[in-house]
Write a structure and sequence with these properties.
Layout: E1 9-14, H1 17-33, E2 38-43, H2 45-49, E3 53-57, H3 66-70, H4 73-90, E4 94-98, H5 101-113, E5 118-121, H6 133-140, E6 143-146, H7 151-157, E7 162-164, H8 179-185, E8 193-198, H9 203-221, E9 226-232, H10 238-246, E10 252-256, H11 259-265, E11 268-272, H12 275-282, E12 287-291, H13 295-304, H14 312-317, E13 324-326, H15 332-344, H16 346-361, H17 368-380
Parallel strand pairs: 1-2, 1-4, 2-3, 4-5, 5-6, 6-7, 8-9, 8-11, 9-10, 11-12, 12-13
Length: about 375
């Protein structure tokens, strides 16, 4: 009697809210091509909606920096053990890694020892810091699907087969309703200029950024009529954020997700460095990029990082298109000062928007998830 053919199986590991979103789109594209493929995943809300078999929850391992991750060690170890167990017992046909580099590179090494092919989608930014890791990546990873145009040549020079697939945000960074409707849903006035607050997707980021943002909002609110809305990442508990905003000395509406519609409605965005800066750029919204971390993490980062800017819009443009306020430079007064320039000078604002349009044009064409799905299926044959 013929034995039934075992199902093709993929293990997907995302470790942040953005990786969960891109992973969900990838799974959707995979199922359009191969409905029989079984997907196991370290998953957040997006991947769960796609019906994957959940190995571990993204919300329990979303971390920040080198020193902050130490406080989350127990959950990271549990996640690592859970993923390693699936690799050994389920023997997936392919491991797909999305971002989350320190964790995922350890998983890649396990898969390599077990003879499981590895596809890395949205690779570590080793061109910015710790460049020596690229040799380690070339040993542990079979193929890379990269999302910035300059990355393919960088990895190829190190012996890693890499393909530029375009940036996945090109498929998602768009509004679905008019500005007026979004503001009405938030109880805000379309006639009043609006500032959107994106303090980050990690709890420690919010702890560092939100108090300073609220102080800056209070300062500007004393000077002119403005309204503020905070976009909650799905990795953050709503109740805690709502309590913090309720105690602020300036009114701030809370939006549960709906980031692109809020960005469309905003005249200015204050955003933590990370994926949100690129989303804001793709929405052609003027912004102020901010970032703080623990002093120890910052000291380490200064020794390791080898890029002039930290915001992807500025890195891709090759110049400071939007202001960056990092560590000690991130003060309420500085945020307020940069905001006055952007809101008060039409030429500054329009010039910024034009350069953000150039950044968007350099990121390729929509359809990244489909291209990555094709690569994944080809690696499983």
């Amino acid at each position: 009697m013929n034995q039934p053919t075992p199902p093709r199986r993929i293990l997907l590991v995302a470790g942040e809210a953005s990786g969960d979103l891109h992973g969900a789109h990838l799974v959707s594209a995979l199922r359009e091509r191969a409905p029989d493929v079984e997907v196991w995943a370290v998953a957040g809300e997006g991947l769960k909606k796609e019906g994957v078999r959940v190995v571990f929850d993204v919300a329990d391992i979303a971390g920040m920096g080198l020193t902050e991750l130490a406080g989350n060690f127990t959950n990271l170890w549990r996640a690592y053990s859970s993923v390693k167990k699936v690799l050994r017992e389920q023997k997936p046909n392919l491991l797909v890694l999305i971002d989350f580099p320190d964790f995922n590179m350890r998983i890649a090494a396990v898969a390599k020892r077990l003879g499981i092919p590895v596809l890395y989608y949205i690779t570590p930014q080793v061109w910015a810091w710790r460049k020596r890791r690229v040799k380690k990546m070339a040993r542990a990873i079979d193929r890379a699907a990269v999302v910035f145009p300059f990355e393919a040549a960088f990895y190829a020079n190190a012996g890693l087969k890499a393909e530029f697939v375009g940036h996945p945000l090109l498929d998602t960074a768009r509004a679905t309703r008019p500005r007026e409707e979004t503001l009405a849903r938030l109880g805000l006035d379309p006639a009043v200029r609006t500032i959107a607050l994106l303090p980050g997707s990690r709890r420690r980021e919010v702890e560092y950024h939100l108090p300073v943002m609220l102080e800056a909002a209070e300062m500007l609110n004393r000077e002119s009529a403005l309204q503020f809305v905070l976009v909650r990442a799905n990795t953050l508990p709503r109740d805690a954020l709502a309590r913090r905003l309720a105690g602020a000395r300036v009114a701030v509406s809370l939006s549960d997700g709906d980031a692109y519609n809020v960005l469309e409605a905003a005249d200015l965005v204050w955003t933590a460095s990370g994926t949100a800066t690129l989303e804001t750029a793709l929405m052609l919204r003027p912004m102020v990029i901010v970032y703080r971390m623990s002093p120890m993490t910052f000291a380490l980062a200064r020794r390791l990082v080898r890029v002039e800017h930290i915001g992807m819009a500025n890195i891709i443009a090759g110049e400071k298109v939007v202001p960056e306020l990092i560590q000690n430079d991130m003060t309420a007064a500085a945020i307020a000062a940069e905001s006055r320039k952007i809101l008060g000078d039409r030429e500054t604002r329009e010039g910024m928007i034009a350069k953000l349009g150039q950044v968007r044009a350099r990121l390729g064409e929509p359809g990244a998830a489909s291209r990555v799905a094709d690569i994944a299926l080809s690696m499983m044959r």
